[in-house]
Design brief:
Shape: elongated
Strand content: 5-15%
Order of helices and strands: EEHEHHHHHHHHHHHHHHH
Radius of gyration: 29 Å
Largest sheet: 3 strands, antiparallel
CATH architecture of the largest domain: Up-down Bundle
Helix content: over 70%
Number of helices: 16
Number of strands: 3
Oligomer: single chain
CATH topology of the largest domain: Receptor-associated Protein
CATH superfamily of the largest domain: Type II secretion system (T2SS), domain F
Strand order of the largest sheet: 2-1-3
Amino acid sequence: MIFNYTISNAQGEMKKGEIEGSDREEIINNFVSEGYFIVSLKIKKKKINVIFDFEKISDLDKIYFFKNLSLMLRAGLRIPEIITTLSEMVKSSKFKKILENIRKRTEGGTSLHNALSFYPEIFSPLMLGLVKLGEETGQLEEATDHLHGLLFSRYEFKKEIKSAMIYPATVIFLSVGVFVSIFLFLVPKLAKLFTSLAVQPPLITRIFIWSIDFFQKNIFYIFITFMMLVLGYILLYRQKKIKIFFQKIDLTLPVMGRILKKINLSYFAKNLGLLLKSGMPIEKALILNLEITENEVYKQKVEDVLTAVRKGNTIASILNQSPKEFTRSFAKTIESGERSGNLIESLSYLSSFYEGEVERETKDLTIALEPILLIFVGLIVAFIAIAIIAPIYQYITAIDVIR
């Protein structure tokens, strides 16, 4: 088998590549024995193979895993015993099998960090980094407790954003469903009736009938075009340069751009603050922050920060050079924290502040969208109503004139 790997040495230098091996454990042990920190190790996907794996490990499963792990470590239980108990508690059959494999490895003398490293698609570099740090410092229970706090905080944060967007998404979905139903079932019958009338329908009705006729005759081509556009967007978005281009545009949008920027600022501050609070060196913390940053624009900025720190410069020196991605107040707060030696406190404050800002602005956006959606739906309903009623009224008037 061929594996794609990303590793880091003691100096924080990243290395990526491919390696061939028959056993995943053997590859991991070789890297660890050479002094490397494994960021990710995945089997190289073959283009002709399609693997269907519909069961996913949820965020809540991971949150409860680290919470219970921390509690049982504090109670003095051994790791294999803890993993056995946790495997009995989880509902996911996939997670049960994974935990059983982890238990076997830990019983065989493998460290928890190395056992978790076999599943990088489930345990992120941040999780692995904190677990390894906890094992090296003898504070694994504190490290897993910090990790639980971060995962739970991010889960709640995402949940609040999704909850705020439920109403507008539901209105749009139902509106589209109603309009499609009208177009497919009701309107075609009315269109035949209007065309059979001796009186020429008004312009708005003719436009309406033409759009229905065009939709019915070209529905296959419209569907194919739509699917090609979606597929093309997905394929293009996988290209790093194209993805960066789209994400830069996203950040410039009037309202959503501001919210996306604050979400990324909150994540940057929370992740870096937690890693530093756990006792991790600044360089290693930035490496892990780099690996878990999803937005490519901010990933590039974290790389710049990492380069600057390696040269002996401050974090704020780079943030001040990127006013589009990092607000002036954000950079100044970081600068103040670095000067006073209270960087962790500054990062914690920034994380809480921007989380609150995102929550407030998301709620404000939802409130603002309500009347806009109602007006939009109302206009479409009015257009359909007028297009249907106008020819009927015109026909009745023509009959009265003839009489």
